[in-house]
Amino acid sequence: MSMLRVENMTHFFGGLRAVHNYNLEIRPGEVHGLIGPNGAGKTTIFNLITGIYDPTEGDVFLEDHKINGRTPHVIAAMGIGRTFQNMLLWRHMTVLEHVKMARYSKLSYGLIGAFFGTPRRNREEAESEEKAFTLLRMFGVDQFADQWVPNLPYGAQRRVEMARAMAMEPKVLFLDEPTAGMNPEELVQMMDIIRQVKEKFKPAIFLIEHRMKVVMELCESIQTLVFGEVIAEGTPDEIQNNPKVIDAYLGKEIVE
Amino acid sequence: MEETSEKLSPPSIWSKLNIRTWVSKVPLLAWLIGALIAVGLEMAIGTPLARGLGLPKAPVLFGFIIMLKKPLLIPGAALYLLLIYVLPIGLIARFGAAALNRLAATLVEFSTVFSILIHLALLYLALHLWSGMSDYRILVVKLTLIAVMVTLSLNVINGYMGEFSCSHPGFMALGAYATSVFTVSLFVNDKLFGAAVLPSVIGPFFFPIALFLGGVVASIGAMVVAIPSFRTRGDYLAIISLAFLFIVKSLIENLEVIGGPRGLGSQPDWANLPTVFLITVICIWVINNFVRSTVGKALNAVRDNEMAADAMTVNTRRTKFVAFLFAAFWAGVAGGLFAHVLRYVNPSTFGIQKLAEVLAMVYFGGLNSVYGAIVGATSISLLGEALRPLEIFKWIIIPLLLILVMIFRPTGLIAFKEFDARQLVQPKKLK
User: Fold this and answer.
1) On chain B, which terminus has fewer CB atoms closer than 10 Å, C or N?
2) Which of B293, B304, B316 sits opposite A121 (nearest CB)?
3) Where in the sequence is the domain holding A86, given as residue range(s)?
4) Any CB–CB contact under 8 A between A103 and chain B?
5) If you count residue pairs, one on A and one on B, with CB atoms under 8 Å apart, how many are there?
6) Tens digit of pLDDT for each residue in B55-64?
7) Among B423, B326, B299, residue whose Cα is nearest residue B371
8) Which CATH number goes with the domain that contains A226?
9) Is residue A201 part of a domain?
10) Would you identify the CATH topology of the domain B135-423?
11) Distance from CA of B236 to the nearest CA of A (A)
12) What stretches in chain B show pLDDT beneath 70?
């Protein structure tokens, strides 16, 4: 059984074909990488699967349930957690509030609980806070729990975003360039965290990344996307030696 | 360390820092008891003292009106203010702090809820006795409490959810009219609606129902703004909400059944001080509960980044819908109270002027903060009353003040601060 399956997905922005006939299969616990030059459509694919855009053609299945056509928050609650390329954090919320917010769909106290502070709400909020703290400790950001996120160092902000995504208890975790803009030290930390997440929670991971070091070390299978089309698919070794991929990244060698 | 420096250089007592550390040791209980004693003092010797100081009568609103009308009486009024209010409260706060801290600690130890209730009772008692001395004060206190409700409910939309809503006076109008129609038609012999249907003796028991109804009608009206908010944000939604305000106003102006532009009067006199106080407290409690829950914090998530909120399982549509309807509900309840305090409403009350007033209260006090709403509403209402003798200059001074606040604190006086009643009643640490 596949965890996440995409069948023949095509998407147009007006007359522009952003994604063409895209297929994907991720097994439970697998780390799948998506690489490709800027503008290839990688983030568009993320947005299509997570419901921000509705694919023009094709279907998306999460554990064999069709999910395309649903709203993003429903898809997220079904088990797709994600981080964003440019870290969409909430400016005026504390680190703890970030992580608790991702457990929104797990709360069942409803409006009555919110308005009147019922015992059930207090219990659920306390439980949620405890789980949030466990995650914060795991990602090494618990000392910032009461701080607003913009006050945190860059690497810590990235870790908060990861913690927030994990608080949803996702079955598939989408990471959109998790190491973008990091220095070598932060990069190593982030890779450790991804490995830790993989070991502890065993989600399937779908990873967009530009740094080959990260992709080659973490991923079990890789797709290369160019102009919305997959030009190569396989294990890291196969991809590294695939002439098409080398062409796409480095350009063709002119042979006399 | 601090204490030694104090001893070495006595003048530093007057430095800002020391006053601040001194004030920070005074529990809320001490301020309330100080206020109560000040009010008692005024009741006992207010009038003779005022005469003795050469004032025509005891100053009604902290002497501001006398000071502005007759500058020659400024020393007398200031002395009155000092003797009646500042001195007793200051003395209690200074010398009672230690004992009252212990008392506050005992109360909290017994039960925090009980302690909160005691504080509320003290606050009410002080307000009741203070306002009992003149009808004008009662009116000012009631209108201030209503302003707190309106400001707080507008803060839910403009502060917590970050949309600029201009429709709040419209929600108030809906609530005011719905409540008034209910009470006037059922319990009052009136020209518009004919004889009373039910005996007016049982009327006050129906007043909460009438207010609830007013809130519900306002909520239904709010759907007109809430549904477009799914698709538009920012300036466009502000224009939609402004349009809503005009729709409500001209609708009421053209409905002769409920009085049209002449307004609707002869509301029964049920909105007495305890009722207004109680409903304001409930309003603050419920709104504060809401904005501190994760369900309520979803408003902040939607404000700061809607796409991220959606990706983190937050149902953004439901969140926006609830926020608008909830805020409108309380604005409607406040409108209902407003109509019954003045015992007359007309559509022109709920126009741009009112909108400007409420917005000023929200932004002056501070966004995303219950404290801010309380402070903003209270200070702008009281300033509005206190500066009344200046007539037209009032509307130069208050906006200037607003501009100054915006320069030094762009998000308002007390923005982004959580209000926690349990924290508030705690004894202050003694060093």
Assistant:
1) N
2) B293
3) 4-91+164-250
4) yes
5) 103
6) 888 888 888 8
7) B423
8) 3.40.50.300
9) yes
10) ABC transporter involved in vitamin B12 uptake, BtuC (1.10.3470)
11) 22
12) 1-18, 430-431
